[in-house]
Amino acid sequence: MQRHGAPLCLPPASPTIVSTVLTDLAAAVHDPDEVQPILVCSRRFAESPAASAVRGLTADLLVVDKGGLEEVLSVRRAGRPIVVLFDDSFSGADLRPHPGYTLRIVSLAPLATSERQRLGEALSFITPPDISAEDLRIAMRCAVREAYYGDQCVSLDSERRRLAGEVTRLNRIGIALSAERDPERLLEFILTTARDFTCSDAGSLYIIEKDAEGNRRLRFNNSQNDSLPNLELVKFTIPVSKSTLAGYVAATGEPLNIPNVYVIGQAEYSFNPAFDQRTGYRTRSMLVLPMKNQNDQVIGVLQLINRKVSRAVELRTSVIEDVVIPYDEQALELTFSLASQAAVSLTNTQLYQGIKDNLNELKTTQAQLVQSEKLASLGQLTAGVAHEINNPLAFSRNNTHLAHARVTSVHRRLHANNWLNNSAGSSAERIAAGRAVLERLLADKGLAADVKEVSGEIGGLPPPQQLEMLRDFLTYVIRKKENEEGPIEELLARTQKVLEESFIGLDRMAEIVLGLRNFARLDEAQFQTADIDEGIRQTLMILGNNARDKGVHLESSLALTRPYTCFPAKLNQVVLNLVNNAIDACKRGGTVAVRTREHEGNVEISVQDDGEGITDDNLSKIFDPFFTTKPVGKGTGLGLSISYRIIMEHRGTISVRRNENSGGVTFLIRIPVEQEAPKTQAERT
Ligand SMILES: Nc1ncnc2c1ncn2[C@@H]1O[C@H](COP(=O)(O)OP(=O)(O)OP(=O)(O)O)[C@@H](O)[C@H]1O
Ligand SMILES: [Mg+2]
């Protein structure tokens, strides 16, 4: 609807319309931005002295005959408001009001009831026959004003409706824009929507990126063209320079609205006709807009090409000048706001993508760290266990070797004794049995040389001398052994002792292995009733080696008198972390004390050290994941954050305070005695 500043546009010359605009009325105030009503009257009235009544009114006067009146009303549809001064000359004319314009009628002649009803709201005034010029003037002024304001109301209402429609549409687009997380789909959507909004035949989208040297450049990323639907998109980049249209907009952040790109005149930028020349396309009107994000940064350029009178028109089959129109202010405003929304969505999508990538990276790093933390504590555990087992293992092993050597020796001595004490059998049988004893003695390093010599010698002797020699040698062996090892009974008694010592070592090892199993509680990773003190004892045993190495004393005062429901393996993990930290904080000669008790409905576990303490600055950070003051490769900074999480799982608290006199800190864990069983996966979902 063409409204503001509309010229008084009459239909083409018609024999029925007599157009006589009174000079003084034509000269009346005429603001081109206002929509002046047209005041239609008959020639009779215009030529009568009563015409002075309409002088000075803010309206354009049109003098017509009856046929002309009907014609004016029919062609004025969707035009300016009309006031008809109705007199006898118009009687019988069809004055039906039409929704396309505002009509007001001042009747100089009386009207029948049916006529009044037909005119309805349009009828402003019926003058008495003897109305004075002054009264008529007032009636006309009212009718003109009424027509003007009525028209304003209609146009404001339709403008309101149009704006509401646009707001709804923009809102829908805004929602759709913010919901799209895929950047490529988002860009296509932005371009399609902007073209729909503006009835553009074609459009392109450039994205700002940085080259290897960090210079900004424009990447031609999306292109749509109704006239060339099969056009293949070739992505390319251009510098952000004011010489091209997109470059100019990217560099200045200002939009360009060009009615005809082939007639740009004097400007820093120019249109590159290469595309038109290559494809036979004809570019004419163009709207180039910056896509500015929430920080007012231009992140892309939206280029809309050839605004058409209707989206359905095909450029190929039309004369371009007839169907392509310039972009107006309204298109510029709308697309500008759309481009900004799109830029914000695009920035958000990029941020979202970045956050997603960072999160994935963080998760991977965290998994690696947790894994390496596990490996580190596994290494620590293994070292502790190896150390603990080494002593009992070493002496059990030595003792077993010793016992084995003694038992073997006893065995050999018994064989020699048996041969000497047993004279049954022929001399050949006795010699064979004696040689078998020698064979056994050969394995004894202390006797091997003598045995070899005797065995060599007896081979060449007659049987009686052989028997003689064997008797002498074995008697010598028995004496020698008795001298060296003592009597067999004593030797066996000593061996028994050695074996008993080995049992102690083996028991110790069994204890350590059991302790390790208890600590890991692989079979008890669940929520259950457990002896918390016992768990702590096992943990301290495992850490004993680490403490000894660092010259730190471990003390414990464990005073829980009954089992509690908890995650025992996880609590062990917490105590392990706290005691490890405490040992790390202590100097040689320092002490770490672990205490437990039941107090005011809570199980309390405290770990106190007299180490270096924690600075004010660090105190607020120690439970943060990855916070560590330990050298790279030493601490992961996860120990306390994992511990914190575990205590939260027990609905408890973990706090730390500085010790008043001894220096160092005390960590205090409190977990309610009554623990609720955690929800199962099925209950949680
Ligand atoms: N008893 C303590 N005395 C002094 N500082 C401590 C003590 N306990 C913890 N801290 C401080 O808190 C930081 C975080 O401890 P946390 O157990 O979370 O990580 P970490 O010991 O550094 O590494 P890890 O993951 O190997 O345990 C430590 O680096 C240390 O600075
Ligand atoms: Mg730690």
What does this entry look like structurally?
The chain is of the alpha/beta class and 685 residues long. It has four domains: 23-158, Rossmann fold, CATH 3.40.50.2300; 180-327, Beta-Lactamase, CATH 3.30.450; 358-495, no CATH class; 522-684, Histidine kinase-like ATPase, C-terminal domain (Heat Shock Protein 90). The chain is 49% helix and 17% strand. It has 19 helices and 19 strands. The protein has helices spanning 23-26, 43-47, 66-75, 113-119, 133-179, 183-198, 245-252, 274-279, 320-323, 329-421, 427-441, 448-458, 463-485, 488-520, 532-550, 568-585, 616-619, 639-649, 681-684; strands at residues 38-42, 60-64, 82-86, 103-107, 123-126, 200-210, 216-225, 236-239, 256-258, 286-292, 298-308, 324-325, 528-530, 553-558, 564-566, 591-599, 602-609, 653-658, 665-672. Strands 6, 7, 8, 9, 10, 11 and 12 form a seven-stranded antiparallel beta sheet that branches. A five-stranded parallel beta sheet has the order 2-1-3-4-5, with helices on both faces. A hairpin with a 5-residue loop joins strand 6 (200-210) and strand 7. The chain is elongated, with a radius of gyration of 54 Å. The model is unreliable at 1-33 and 681-685 (pLDDT under 50). Adenosine-5'-triphosphate binds next to helix 16 and helix 18. Magnesium ion binds next to helix 16.
Secondary structure layout plus pairing:
Blueprint lengths: L22 H4 L11 E5 H5 L12 E5 L1 H10 L6 E5 L16 E5 L5 H7 L3 E4 L6 H47 L3 H16 L1 E11 L5 E10 L10 E4 L5 H8 L3 E3 L15 H6 L6 E7 L5 E11 L11 H4 E2 L3 H93 L5 H15 L6 H11 L4 H23 L2 H33 L7 E3 L1 H19 L2 E6 L5 E3 L1 H18 L5 E9 L2 E8 L6 H4 L19 H11 L3 E6 L6 E8 L8 H4 L1
Parallel strand pairs: 1-2, 1-3, 3-4, 4-5, 14-16
Antiparallel strand pairs: 6-7, 6-11, 7-8, 9-10, 10-11, 11-12, 13-15, 16-17, 17-19, 18-19
Helix pairs in contact: 5-10, 6-10, 10-11, 10-13, 10-14, 10-15, 11-13, 14-15, 15-16, 16-18
This protein binds adenosine-5'-triphosphate and magnesium ion (MG).
